[in-house]
Amino acid sequence: MENRNIEKHFPLRRHQFPRFTLVRGRAQILALTLLIGIIVSFLIPPFQSPDEFDHIKRAYLLSKGQFLLESPANLSSGGKIDNGLLNYMEAFENLPHKSENRVTRERITESKKEKWTKTTRFSPAPGTGYYFPLIYFPQASGILIGESLDLTIDHSYRLARLLSLIISLAIIGIASVIYPVNFLTLALLALPMTVFQFVSASIDGTATAIGILCISLFMRAADRKLDYPAWAPWLLAISLLLLVTSRAHLLPLVGMPLAAFFFRKKRTDLLIFPALAILSVIWLYVALHYTVDLRDIRPEKTYTVSHIILYYLKNPLAFFTVIWSTVMDPEIRKFYQMSFIGILGWLDLPFERWLYNLSILFCVTMGILSIQWKNIKSDWPARACLLGFSAISMLMIFFLLLVTWSVHPAVTISGVQGRYFLAPFMLLAYSLSGSTDTFLSRRKLVALPLFYLYCLIISFVMPEALIYRYFLQ
Predict the structure, then answer these.
(1) Interior/surface letters 282-291, b for 16+ CB within 10 angstroms, e for the rest
(2) 82, 96, 341, 369 — which has fewest CB within 10 A?
């Protein structure tokens, strides 16, 4: 009866949207993820995600209506931050990169007393100046609500975290209705590093969720069995603009509307592509022009970024040579692997080796279960596009860190972390299944129990690791 009522009010074609039972099943998965996220969140002290101090500063500035950072003379870009918030941050500044330090009851008690003072002082946050500020909407909303209701700063910060998690999961839920996720995508979302970033107040969770939404919209455009509503190209354009202006290595994804035009022949997509490319370039120019970063990123300042970019554009073979040297280094490969699966905190909380081995086996298994050949003749162009976007995005990661974070001329590329590859691997995941809904296959009888089992293991391992790292001597 329930399904009949839904079909009565939403008379959709068979292949237009997932059946209600499937939507309900995916909602249960999201609810489980939310529960695990909330539990893990309460065990993580504030500001323990890399650069989270600066992310919260940027969110606070957005809550005050400030879109661009200030750049006073001889100082890195930043803004005027409430003194109470800065005092609250100081209580946790001794934790990053210092695995021997712990959170004491006295420090937590004192930090929870901090209130909004309505007085401000300048504080730098240059690393966030390159991100389009609306990506901080969830965190800024939490801060704005907390300050408006005169909550403590601790409660306001926790609210910012919670809203970021809820909005990110809601975006993923919408994306899964627009186009189904597959088993490998679920596996990547369940990794400890992904969970940790989702429950933090950084923009990683939001950016990942928007990335999944972009891929879902693209796959819907590519699948001609499905309707492609008039609003879909505009939602894709807005999502891509938020994504590529906060994740520069995903700039190749601006080509999605162009590819969608060849699938659907809609003039809207053809008009959106150049507009999106121009707006993205304009924002990057504005961000680079107005952001002043005086941090000692490279140990030497002999060469400017533009000089290094020009060097590798003239010598592309040198670029690929340094990439090869980097990925062939066994220690660097090991770090990529571990930091992709999970080195929590400010890269100061690794897990035991067995969890990394188990996680690799889990992802490989879920990847194999996601491979579908049934529609390969019809959907190979979409899969090829996703693989192309994934490969170019990976190259962009290496290129951006090569020209901004590595000594020139470089032997290996510095600054790359495994978690940067999450979005390219999401693109790869969708290319494995193409236009097939893996949840309709019998493989789910194997994949879903494996997913729930892995989540159960993580729900025990992560809290234990966090308690030992931050609270027990």
Answers:
(1) ebbebbeeeb
(2) 96
CA distance 23 to 221: 20
For residue 88, what are its two tokens?
Answer: 């609250």
Spell out where 61-210 has E strands: 78-82, 120-124
Considering only CA atoms, which of 283, 295, 188, 201 is closest in space to residue 244?
Answer: 283
Q: Give residue 295's pLDDT.
A: 73
Which phi and psi angles does 302 have, rounded to 5°?
-65, -40
Task: Quote the pLDDT of residue 38.
Answer: 82
- Residue of 15, 5, 31, 57 lying closest to 455 (CA atoms): 31
Domain positions in the chain: 21-50+174-470
- Find, among 170, 163, 159, 214, the residue nearest to 30 by Cα: 170
Q: How far is CA 348 from CA 49, 97, 100, in A?
A: 10, 6, 10
- What is the model's pTM? 0.91
Residues forming beta bridges with residue 81, ordered by sequence position = 121
The gap from C-alpha 185 to its chain's centroid, in whole angstroms, comes to 13
> Any idea what the Cα angle at residue 337 is, between residues 332 and 339, rounded to 5°?
90
User: What are 228's two structure tokens?
Assistant: 């492609």
d(CA 284, CA 132): 9
CA gap 135, 242 in Å, rounded: 6
**Residue with more model confidence, 191 or 15:** 191
Q: Which two tokens stand for residue 128?
A: 């966030």
pLDDT tens digits, 419-460: 999 999 999 999 999 888 888 888 999 999 999 999 999 989
